[in-house]
Amino acid sequence: MCGIVGYIGQRNTKKVILQGLQTLEYRGYDSSGMALISKGEIIVEKKVGRIQNLIDSVEGKDLSSEIGIGHTRWATHGVPSDTNSHPHYSMDKSVAVVHNGIIENYQSLKKDLEEKGFIFSSETDTEVISQLIQDMYDGNILNTVKKALKKIKGSYAIGVLHKDHPDELICAREHSPLVIGIGENENFIASDVSALLEYTKEVYYLEDGDIALLKKGEIEIFDKANNLVHRERKHIEWTLEQATKGGFPHFMLKEIFEQPQVIEDTFNKRVLNGRADFSDVLTFEDIKKINKIYIIACGTAYHAGLQGQFALQKIAKLDSSTDIASEFRYSDPFIDENTLVIFVSQSGETSDTLAALKEAKRKKAMTIAITNVVGSTISREADKVIYTLAGPEIAVASTKAYITQITIFYLLALYIAEIKNTISKEKYLEYISEIKNMSEKIDSILKNSNEIKNIANLLKNKKNGFYIGRGLDYKIAVEGSLKIKEVSYIHTEAFASGELKHGTIALIEKDTPVVVIATQQELIEKSISNIKEVKARGANIITVGFNNEKNLEEVSDNFIGIPKCNDLFSGFLSIIPLQLLAYYTSIAKGIDVDKPRNLAKSVTVE
Ligand code: F6R
Prior knowledge:
single chain; alpha/beta; Glutamine Phosphoribosylpyrophosphate, subunit 1, domain 1; Rossmann fold; 3 domains; eight-stranded antiparallel sheet
C-alpha cells in the first residue's frame, strides 16, 4: 500500500525515480509525486491519477539532481488530489517526506504544531512528519529525524530530504516495508525489490525501528536503541525479466501463463528424491506434538488456505481450520505450544496477517509463514518460513502466487502424512506424481483459452452472478468469484451449491449467470441436481468440469472441460479457467486489469 523510492548518485535521478514508481505502481495508484534537491532547493512535483500524469507533467523540465524521493499513493487520509499526494513539504519547504503507513497520533501532533504557527496544506497524516522535522531541526538531519520519530506512533516507511543536506538521504521503517539497494557510489531505497532490479540485486532489509543514512558511497543503519548496526546483506535472485511483461499485454495474463513453470519450480525445490521435504521447518518431533493447525491469511491467500486445510485433513488427517487474519486476531482462539499456525501471504507484508502472527506468537504457538517475498516482515517474524517460488507477482489480482501456495500445502500434507504414517506407499507415490503432472495439464488448459474469451463476452454486460460448488469445488468457487469481482467489477457471490436453496436462490432470475465447478466425483450427481434447480429458475449455466463428463455438459449452457486428475487435486486445474474468465471479462469491459479501482497489491493497513 503506497510505494516509495529514493535515490542518491550520479544517474539521472528524475528517471530513476519515475521508473521506480512505475514498477511500484501496483502498490497504489491514485496519485504520485517526487522531490529532488536542485540548486539548493527542494523541488516537489506531484499529480493526482496514474503515474503517467506525473511523467507528462515533468517532461522537458530541467530537474537535474543527484538525490530524490518518490511516492505512489493509495489514499488513507484525505481524498486522492494533487495536494494530498506525496511528497509533503514542511511549511518553509526545507524538508520533503514520502511515507507509506499511518501515523496514528497525527491529530495531536498537528494540533501542537498549529499552536506553534505551522500551517498545513493537506489532509494527510504524513504532513505532520515533515512539519515536525522542520520544527525540531538542529542542523543535523539524521539526528533530527531520529528525535522526530520518537514522537510518532503508528506505522511508517519514510524517505526524507532536507534542502541543506543534498548529500544525505534519510529513511526509516516501522511496520511498513523498506529495502535499501546497494550500488557503487550510489544507493537506493524502495518499498520492494522489484523497483531496484534494474540497478542492483544487493540489498539490506531494514528492521522495525531502523533509521538509515544513505550517502553516495556509504550506508549507516541505526536500530531503535540508536546503535549503529550491521544488517545482513542479501542477494536477490529475481530477474528484471520476471518483473516485466515479457511480451504479454498485461501482467495478469503473463502471470496466469507462468503457472506451469512456478508449480514446477516450487515442486523441484521441495521434492527431493521423490519425497516432499520440509525438514527445515517441521521436524519429526514437531509433527508428533501438533494437536491442531490453524491457517491464517487474507483474500486470495485465505482461499489458498482453504485448500490447504482440505489437503491437511484429507491427506495428513490433521485437525485444521482456516480463518481470515483480521477476524482470527480477535476471536480468542485456543492456542498453545502444540498448535501450529500457518500464515499465508504473497507479499509477506499484509498488516492483518502480521498482527495475527504476533497474536499467535504471544500465545506461544509454533508459527510458519508461507510467503513469496524473501526478507519480508512476515518471513522474518514467523518461527520458520517456506518460500513459494512464484517470482515477482505484479498484477494486483493474485494468480501464480496462489497456485504456488496450494502446491506447498499439498506437498506439506504429504510430508506430514508420511511421517505420521497416514498414507500408504502407493498413494504417496500416486499423489506426488499428480502434483508433478499439474504443469502439463495446466498448459493444455491455457492452450484453449480462446473458448473462455467467448464466454467472457457473454458475461461482460452482467451485473450479478453466482459461483457454486460442493466440497473442494466450493473452495475454488470462492476464489473464482473474488477474481472476477476485483478485475471486472461484476458482483458475484460464491455459494456452497447445496446452500443456495436455503434463501439465496430467490435472486436467480432469467439469464443470471451461474458458474458451477463440479469435479468431485462423489458429489457430481448432487451438483447436477443443484444445476437443474437454478436452471429451472432461468439461470445461465457455465460449468467447469472434467473433460468428457457428458451428463454435466448436457445440463450446462457452456461447458469448460479440464484434464482428468484425482479429484483431491482438481483445484490446481479448475481455478485456471476461472482466472482466465476474470481476465477476459475485465479486458472485454475495457478495465485496467492489472490495476483495478480501489485496490492495491500490498495491504499494509489494518
Ligand atoms: C486478490 C488478492 C488479495 C490478496 C490479499 C492478501 O487477488 O491479491 O486478496 O491475496 O490482500 O495479500 P498477501 O497474500 O500479500 O498477504
